[in-house]
Design goal:
Layout lengths: L2 E8 L2 E6 L2 E7 L1 H5 L9 E8 L2 E7 L5 E2 L4 E2 L3 E7 L7 H13 L3 E7 L6 H17 L3 E3 L5 H11 L3 E5 L6 H8 L25 E5 L2 E5 L21 H6 L17 H7 L5 H16 L5
Cofactor: Zn(2+)
Protein name: Small ribosomal subunit biogenesis GTPase RsgA
EC number: 3.6.1.-
């Protein structure tokens, strides 16, 4: 039986890409019984007499998956954040980075709307770029019609399955449209009264862009650390992982413990104090989370 990749799921149909053709398939009834649901990004075994009459027979093991947005087997996350309208939000960016790190997915960051900044604001964004790049995250500063930035983004997309993430109104769909105008993904102007964009994307779909596959999704609608445990959180901060072997206690949460190498690195300016503050906020949020049974 042929094996293909689900590139779209819509109204109970799964669109499977195989050797340059797309097959419209339904899931077999036993998936429902086993409480398994095929996801965009799944590699599946399927059977199809015609291109619009296929059935998914089995789903190959996933290397990762998200619940919201529902997608599997992602290689990397393109996190888009805007410098203005909505204003740059380092806390929200760090939240996205933690969620992506928790799934062992590589992130890279695009800061959009750089052309709307004053010189002073531009310098501040360059400082953020330097800080995140020192941690190991690629950062691209992007303006309208910025061909160099678009070339950089495309080089990251080639040969990989990428999920695009970021709050509404930061320019995710505009970014994809500027890379590949054939997409013509709907975009909406920012709602001035709300200060944020309206969601324009209705379903998860993988688009072939820049020799890779990119998921334009209805956004990470859940930014809660639902299944992240306290001891996992430090692992989602690469700069902590780099020094934590120097902590006195194994399993150090870098909070109230004495002789903590992370806290020492923060006080010496080797780790961003702002990133550490965000870490403590996330830690408190996870610790206060109600247990689920």
């Amino acid at each position: 039986m042929p094996v293909g990749k689900i590139i779209k799921a819509l109204s109970g149909f799964y669109y499977v890409w195989h050797e340059g053709a797309v097959y419209q398939c339904r899931g077999r009834g036993n998936f429902r019984k086993r409480k398994v649901s095929p996801l965009v990004g799944d590699m599946v075994e399927f059977k199809a007499e015609k291109q619009d009459e296929g059935y998914i027979l089995s789903i190959e093991e996933r290397k990762n998956e998200f619940v919201r947005p529902p997608i599997a087997n992602v290689d990397q996350a393109l996190i888009v954040t805007s410098a203005m309208h909505p204003d740059f939000n380092a806390l929200l960016l760090d939240r996205f980075l933690v969620l992506v790190e928790a799934k062992r997915i590589e992130p890279f960051i695009v800061i959009s709307k750089m052309d709307q900044l004053t010189d002073e604001q531009t310098e501040k964004m360059k400082d953020y770029k330097q800080m995140y790049e020192a941690i190991g995250y690629p950062v691209i500063l992007s303006a309208v019609d910025d061909e160099e930035a678009m070339d950089q983004v495309q080089s990251h997309l080639a040969g990989r399955t990428t999920v695009i993430a970021g709050q509404s109104g930061v320019g995710k769909s505009s970014l994809l449209n500027s890379i590949d105008p054939r997409l013509a993904i709907d975009t909406n102007e920012i709602s001035e009264s709300l200060g944020r964009g309206k969601h324009t994307t209705r379903h998860v779909e993988l688009y072939e862009i820049a020799r890779g596959l990119v998921a334009d999704t209805p956004g990470f609608s859940s930014l809660e650390f639902g299944d992240l445990e306290t001891e996992q959180l430090p692992e989602c901060f690469p700069e902590f992982v780099e020094v934590q072997d120097g902590c006195k206690f194994r399993g150090c949460l870098h909070n109230k413990e004495p002789k903590c190498a992370v806290k020492a690195a923060v006080s010496e300016g080797k780790i961003s104090g702002q990133r550490y503050e965000h870490y403590l906020q996330f830690l408190e949020e996870i610790q206060k989370r109600k247990p689920r049974y």
